[in-house]
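<instruction>
Derive structure tokens from the sequence
<data>
Labelled lines for chain and fold:
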Amino acid sequence: MTRLVTFAASLFLFVTLADPRPSAQGGSSAAQGGADAALVAKAKAIHERVITLDTHDDINPANFTRQKNYTQRLETQVNLPKMVDGGLDASFFIAYVGQGPLTPEGYDAAYKEAVAKFDAVHHLTKEIAPGQIELALTAADVTRIAKSGKKVALIGIENAYQLGTDLKRVKEFYDRGGRYMSLAHNGHSQYADSNTGERDGKWLHNGLSELGKQAIAEMNKWGIMVDLSHPSKAANMQAMALSKAPVIASHSAARALADHSRNMDDEQLLALKKNGGVIQTVAFASYVKINKPDSPERTAAILALRKTAGLSAPGGGGGGGGRGGLNALSPEQRARFDAGMADIDKKTPGDPRATVADFVNHIDYIVKKIGIEHVGISSDFDGGGGVTGWNGADETFNVTLELVKRGYSEEQISKIWSGNLLRVMADVEKVARQIQSERH
């Protein structure tokens, strides 16, 4: 089924805004309520024509089995029914492994965990739903598959820790379908310092290790985009200086608007522009907007509720199909948790969560700072991401609507949603071919 049929069927609801029911994830009505029918219709038409690509969606292999998979409307923020509902064409599914000990045993465990995620994506695209979604290995594949009416899967690699110290695995991971890789996550890896060193005041390499520098050369050689999201600023500046190909930040926002070490400051943004790369602006609420601290009463109430639900204390990011562990809850447990949070919100209101408008403020800022050619979109869904109005793939249209509200043209929206990322991907492929030809 093509998106055209889906959107035609749902256009009446969006234009009239007459359906009083909340969306499955919440927030759609609020995001569209301020737009008149003509503007919504214009945005829907643009959304239909452009290729919408989200560069960071975490996965759990348990959701890629014959019994439970993305053909079903799971509680995950991303799955095929929700991609269809929201008009999300393409998703980078992430082979993520959290940082562990820098030991042979740690590397071996991380490698096995990563391979399970690569295999999960291949299982979905080749065996479970080949008629609905296809794996893209090149920038041209993305365009071809999207035009066919299928959804597009791509694979990103989060944290080079899973490589161990064997640089031959860079080529292996490329052969498995990986098309970008970050050299660290939360915690220093054997390849690079993490942004978390800023919080901890401790550094391992003062940027990239020698192994990390060699890894960048291997990534350039085989055609894997270098990802700047999660490593430290020093590591990122060194990576941009070393890389022979444009780089990406797969899920980061502007530090000038939200002072978090996961975001890119102006110096990094300007270096990214010089490199020819792209920052995939991330709709992760606490990276989009730094909330005021909760009151002691609200903090205690939330911790107590999470403890009752068997959840750990809330924290930012981390991947693995989490959303703070909420997806591990059964529908009944989740309903009780949501009711408990609603009661807490009523008794001790917190600082409002970031919205689609707050998210697009970051896009506006980056466009003005380094230009329309260097900005893209990501969500970090199922890894902690989401803002009010874009809290799942089914609400993807709301991002396009906000861009249209702000006067972005269809050409500009096409670049932001996928054009810039696909340009970088194609450039990386070209550099890889050149390097390989020079060495043979």
About this structure: The chain has two domains: 3-291+353-438, 293-351.
